[in-house]
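Purpose: get a first structural picture of the assembly so the mutagenesis plan has something to point at.
Setup: two entries, given in the order below. No constraints added.
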Amino acid sequence: MIWQLDFIILTLVIISGIAAISIRDLLSAAALFGAYSFMMCLLWAIMGAVDVAFTEASVGAGISTVLFVAAVFRTTRRSKD
Amino acid sequence: MGLITVVLCGAMLLFGTADFPGWGDPQSPASSHVSPYYIEKSIPQTSVPNIVTAVLADYRGYDTMFETTVIFTAGIACFFLLRIQRKEPEIRYYRHIPTGITLRVEKGAKLPEDSKVFERIDTLYTPHDLIIKTTARLVIPFLLIFALYVITHGHYGPGGGFQGGVILGAAIILFAISYDLRSASRKLSERAAALLSAAGVFIYAGTGAFCLLLASNFLDYGALASILGVDPVTARSHGILIVEIGVGATVMAVMVWIYYNLSSRGKHDEGL
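Result (structure tokens, whole complex):
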């Protein structure tokens, strides 16, 4: 395990996680959540849990992002910002 | 107040992780009792090279069965929360495919539903995008074959029912996004999705109950040996494949079903 790679991915996980909950636009939050899932998937793959990484990639980064976007498209914007 | 609670809980969690054994520590409790058993016994007992699949579908079969049930319940919950039964709209729009002219049909006058020349379109304007449709049509068959490969190859590599089912569902959702919901539900109707999601759970639990009928424990696939005509060790491998197919069917159908309800606000008329 290369610790530099591990460190970069962990930092990206934390950044995208914090950004996903603090951003105001829901569509961007869904995209950031997809990025978070993808980084977690890389982290699982580095640790050798390939099955978990595969599930994270297909469920977290794939289908849940699609479902989030589908739900966001059916919402309306109340605030002006 | 909320911040203080979060910081306190986070500090306690971080303090708790200090007692964890190191990553990959051979002396840790998990690595010294359970893991060696699976690593040594999974090939002689189940003939499945991928230990994760053997643990998931055989040694911890109950767990996976109820995970499948949870997914099925999620699909039903979305259905009950979102689905609206709605009457047919009085004004319909059709597109004449060769020329691209849109036709408005008032109540009374009616065009045949399965006409090759006219296609029904939504009241919202949906652009006719050739590039996206062609790309999706080229990609979807490979996605479906890859998903089937993932389900059946779960014994030998990473993969299994959950991942393969999700990829199958994603292929159908891609079709629904690139075309529209109406064409997608012509391929896999809501009724079919609902039946398929229940059938997957039925396959899983039914396999377990069948083992019970053959005078064995619930989900002990070794009992299927006499039916399948193989030795008990190979029968456990085949039993894992059967329940993986059940899991894949449920996951695929539920993903598609949730997408149908979510993207059309439960009306099933127009997609994204």
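The CA atoms of residues 25 and 78 of chain A lie 12 Å apart.
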